[in-house]
Design a protein that fits this description.
The complex is a heterodimer of chains A (920) and B (65). With 920 residues, chain A is mainly alpha-helical. Chain B is mainly α and 65 residues long. In chain B, strand 1 and strand 2 form a beta hairpin. In chain B, strands 1-2 form a two-stranded antiparallel ribbon. Chain B has a domain of 31 residues. Helix content of chain B is 72%, strand content 6%.
Chain lengths: 920, 65
């Protein structure tokens, strides 16, 4: 039944079924009812991890060294426990920045560096090529073996190697077509592939079912359960040591490194990144996948050891390659249906890997390698082309073909010398190089672009030298001289025992050195260098993705138009899609149509993000830069900002000062206003007082005049007395008016001053003799004590005389007649010359002393006693003395008399006084 | 304590447990020529530990929401 045409027909039928699944999923997705929006489908799509390596290779490895195949699945089980932290973070960042691939992620993290993206792409392609060749080898071998049915002939022995190679070529080309049809069918080149994910999930089911079927058959059909197989196998000489593999030296280290290697692989294999991150529909699906995917791996591995030992028991001659036990065991027992199922399962495992891996790689090649180069070639003027979607698709299709061809050539060149697992591990070691820049970039803000470049280059170089070079040498592409003798014949540089590190298997050896170089260079260069502004902002975005709120900072300056942006987007996404996107954007913003949009920085950012989802962050950045200006914070701009800020600060300082001045002025004005009000009140008081004082003598004069007028026959003596009183009151009135005028003159500064050097002894003498008559009349004694000589003072003689007369008349007024005694003293003191006028009158109480110098203030009860003066004398005297540069004050106690004193400055130090007077 | 942080701590604890399970010295302890129901002890141990780990993760994850 298993004629070649049946095999080929079954293969094509199966692939047709896959297309049907993909078609159905795509149609459902377009209808908005996605089939892949399920945690189970997500977990099954992750199982693309299990490839032909798992399906055929694990058994081969197990037949060799027992549990040596297990770390490849235990590593991911451990890593998945950390997915809660790592994958969720990667997912969040990727959704935010619309990451399209692993290379895009790393490039984006380090400031959207096109160079880094290109390097990651090159490493990924070169590193994955052996892995793809593994799939080609497995599938073409399974074809060859099946074509020999019912005979069991290995391709290596049958002399059919050339035919195998031809088969491999056809398989490669067919897979390329297949992948192109799957991944690049639509003109919609967005990063998501719903149909592909559905098909992959379906394939994961098929390979699991096929493997479990053959496992059951071998364990329970051919043998009598696990115990039976293991106990029978342990009697084989080559199996016995396999049950205790850790007795062999180095196995433990190799086990540990293999675990680490596959921990990285589950995250950083381009196809795992594709299904786990890019194709992820909902972050919550990770939760279920965290146990369902390990469960899948557990299930597909349970029968590996029984099949391997069953194979060793069934084919004791060793003429059957253990890598093919899964297929050859049912074949040998002529289980044709099971054989076909296994064969289909193998195709599932291989095609699933090839499809996703090449789609992921072609996206990287297109977005991070070819497009940046094409966009930089100005002659092509690519960004100005009306529609680039076709170009993008062609680039991806070409990339798929080239990658598969590379895989084919690697198979020809190196594939034969290695078992399946060993080929795959070389690829694992290559993608492990992404761990330092990616994990470091996710948790360490200090990682720089140059650090990542240096680390990747160093790690990749070590990988090339220690793993790829020996692989080629072993296949005979070139001599073994370098491998055996070391580069330039230096033994220390032997690729498999670098710097003399021996005793490790090749993968462990390469991992030790490449990780050392990679991490070392990454950390060292990062710490030595500095980040650019773009790198810094991206680093913050990636590391702080969980704590960030709000939108990303604006990086664009709006210097473009909406239509220019839409046209640009249309070139890469198709005009219809671009119009749809802009319309949706406008709707979200609450606008009716896209015509109302403004080409602001937000819109430019939106356009960049949409482009990034198609052609990657680095290319999108380059393209958007052709129509919009980048917001670069150059030194000039920073200086401008600082300048502006300092201007503002200076200005606000000025304002503050002005405000202080204003406040001071306001306070001054307020005080002035208060003073004016006070003066106004004083003036009012003065006028009312003056009027009152004037009325008193006037009333007397009028009263006596009326008496005289009404009584013509009044007694002449009486008349004489009355007339005397009228004259006296008139004199008082005149004096009062004179004094008021005098005071007004003094206060307004209009008084005339005739200052000269005067001798005070003379003035005092004159004043005493002028008032001697009054003293005599009142019976008051006066005595003047004058020194023989006093210095001259600068003063107005008449004014000083006026003060003296005022003080003397006051003194005589308040002394009791007969016992009264006034003493005048003249003496020199520190302030100049001092004159005291002391009396032994009634004295002035302390509260009165303060007010007697004010106008119209007289001591004593003015109501009951007739005023003895005008009340202006002391006020005028104080004004005069002050104007002459001296001081007038009183010392007194009630009942002990009073002493009025004043000083006048000396002539030679009275320049200030003179100047003051002159200035008036 | 927020529930997600507790889940994170439990998972990290399981990660450490896994590292312990599949490493020196436990691996060497089970690396003996003994069988359990006919299955070499090391194989039985590895698969049992692996299964236990998966069950624990499933319990943590299904309880977390």
């Amino acid at each position: 039944m298993l004629q070649p045409w049946v095999v080929v027909l079954a293969s094509f039928g199966y692939i047709g079924l896959l297309f049907a699944v993909a078609y159905y999923a795509d149609r459902r997705a377009r209808a908005g009812r996605s089939v892949i929006a399920s945690p189970v489908i997500y977990s099954l799509s992750l199982a693309v991890y299990a490839t032909a390596w798992t399906f055929y290779g694990s058994v081969g490895r197990a037949a060799h060294d027992g549990v040596g195949f297990l770390p490849i699945y235990i590593g991911p089980t451990l890593m998945i426990l950390l997915w809660w932290f790592v994958l969720r973070k990667i997912l969040r960042v990727s959704k935010l920045a619309r990451i399209t691939s692993l290379a895009d992620f790393i490039a984006s993290r380090y400031g959207k560096s096109a160079l880094l993206g290109g390097l990651v792409t090159v490493i990924a392609v070169v590193g994955i090529v052996p892995y793809i060749s593994l799939q080609l080898k497995a599938v073409s071998s399974s074809f060859q073996i099946l074509f020999q049915y019912p005979d069991l002939v290995m391709p290596q022995e049958s002399g059919t190697m050339p035919i195998l190679q031809v088969t491999a070529f056809y398989v490669a080309m067919f897979m390329a077509l297949f992948t192109i049809a799957f991944g690049t069918r639509h003109l919609d080149v967005s990063e998501r592939h719903e149909g592909m994910v559905a098909a992959i999930a379906f394939e994961s089911l098929v390979k699991l079912v096929a493997f479990l079927a053959v496992g059951f058959y071998v364990t329970y059909g051919m043998f009598d359960g696990f115990g039976d197989i293991f106990s029978r196998a342990s009697r084989l000489a080559e199996v016995a040591p396999l049950t205790t593999p850790f007795e062999k030296e180095g196995t433990l280290a190799s086990w540990a490194w293999m675990t680490v290697l596959s921990m990285f692989a589950i995250l950083f294999l381009p196809r795992q990144f594709q299904v786990a991150v890019i194709e992820n529909v909902d972050e919550k699906h990770v939760k279920t996948a965290m146990w369902l995917f390990p469960l899948y791996m557990f299930a597909i591995n349970v029968f590996v050891l029984p099949i391997a030992f069953g194979g060793l028991l069934t084919f004791p001659q060793g003429n059957v390659d253990p890598d093919s036990f899964v297929l050859t065991l049912p074949m040998a027992n002529h289980r044709e249906a099971l054989t076909l199922l296994v064969f289909i399962g193998g195709i599932s495992a291989a095609t699933g890997m090839v499809i996703v891996e090449t789609i992921a790689l072609s996206t990287m090649v297109c977005n991070d390698l070819v497009m940046p180069i094409l966009l930089r070639i100005r002659r092509l003027n690519l960004a100005a082309r009306p529609d680039l979607t076709a170009v993008l698709l062609d680039v991806r299709r070409a990339a798929i073909v080239v990658i598969l061809l590379l895989g084919y050539y690697y198979f020809i060149a190196a594939g034969e010398a290695y078992a399946l697992v060993s080929i795959g591990l070389i690829s694992f070691a290559a993608v492990a190089q992404f761990a330092p820049p990616l994990l470091g970039g996710l948790y360490w803000k200090g990682g720089t672009r140059n650090g990542a470049l240096a680390g990747l280059t160093a790690g990749f170089a070590v990988w090339l030298y220690t793993l790829l070079l020996p692989a080629f040498a072993k296949s005979g592409w070139f001599g073994m001289d370098v491998v055996q003798g070391g580069l330039f014949g230096i033994a220390l540089l032997r690729p498999t025992q670098l710097f003399g590190l021996a005793g490790l298997d090749q993968i462990t050896h390469a991992m030790v050195w490449s990780m050392f170089a990679n991490i070392g260079a990454f950390v060292l260069v990062s710490n030595l260098g500095r980040q650019s502004a773009a790198e810094h902002s991206q680093a913050t975005l990636f590391v702080d993705v969980f704590t960030q709120t709000g939108e990303r900072g604006q990086q664009w300056r709006a210097a473009t138009s909406v239509s220019a942006l839409q046209t640009l987007l249309g070139r890469f996404l198709g005009p219809t899609r671009a119009a749809e996107l802009f319309q949706a954007y406008a709707t979200v913003r609450g606008l009716k149509s896209a015509d109302e949009l403004e080409a602001d920085a937000d819109l430019v950012g939106f356009a960049e993000l949409q482009l990034a989802g198609t052609i990657g962050a680095a290319s999108a950045h380059t393209i958007v830069a052709t129509v919009a200006q980048e917001e670069t914070l150059g030194l000039d701009e920073v200086m401008t900002i600082i300048d502006e800020a300092s201007h503002v600060i200076a200005y606000s300082h000025e304002l503050e000062e002005k405000q202080h001045e204003l406040e001071a002025a306001t306070a001054g004005l307020k005080a002035a206003n208060e003073r004016l009000k006070e003066l106004d009140r004083l003036k009012d008081d003065f006028i009312s007082t003056v009027t009152h004082e004037l009325r008193t003598p006037l009333t007397s004069i009028r009263a006596f005049s009326e008496i005289l007028y009404d009584n013509p026959d009044i007694d002449p003596a009486e008349r004489h007395r009355f007339l005397g009183l009228v004259i006296k009151e008139s004199e008082r009135l005149t004096r009062l008016i004179n004094q008021v005028l005098d005071l007004a003159k003094l206060e307004s500064g209009l008084a005339e001053w005739r200052t000269a050097d005067v001798d005070l002894r003379e003035i005092v003498g004159d004043a005493v003799s002028a008032t001697s008559q009054i003293f005599k009349g009142r019976g008051v004694a006066i005595e003047a004590t004058l020194p023989a000589r006093v210095p001259l003072v600068l003063a107005d003689r008449d004014r000083v005389m006026q003060v003296m007369l005022n003080l003397l008349s006051n003194a005589v007024k308040f002394c009791s007649p007969q016992t009264g005694r006034v003493e005048v003293r003249l003496a020199e003191d520190a302030a100049g010359v001092r004159i005291d006028v002391a009396d032994n009158g009634e004295g002035i109480s302390r509260e009165h002393q303060a007010v007697i110098f004010e106008k119209f203030r007289q001591v004593g009860d003015t109501l009951t006693r007739k005023p003895a003066g005008t009340g202006l004398g002391l006020a005028i005297s104080r004004q005069i003395v002050a104007r002459l540069g001296g001081r007038l004050w009183v010392q007194s106690e009630p009942g002990r008399g009073s002493t009025f004193s004043f000083t006048l400055p000396l002539a030679h130090n009275a320049e200030a006084a003179r100047a003051a007077i002159a200035a008036e | 304590m927020p529930k997600s942080s507790r889940t994170g701590q439990r998972l990290f604890g399981l990660f450490l447990l896994g590292c312990l399970f599949f490493n020196y010295p436990l691996l060497v302890l089970f690396n003996v020529r003994t069988t359990l129901l006919g299955v070499p002890l090391l194989y039985a141990y590895l698969f049992a530990a692996w299964a236990l780990l998966i069950v624990l993760v499933a319990m943590v994850m299904e309880r977390s929401d």
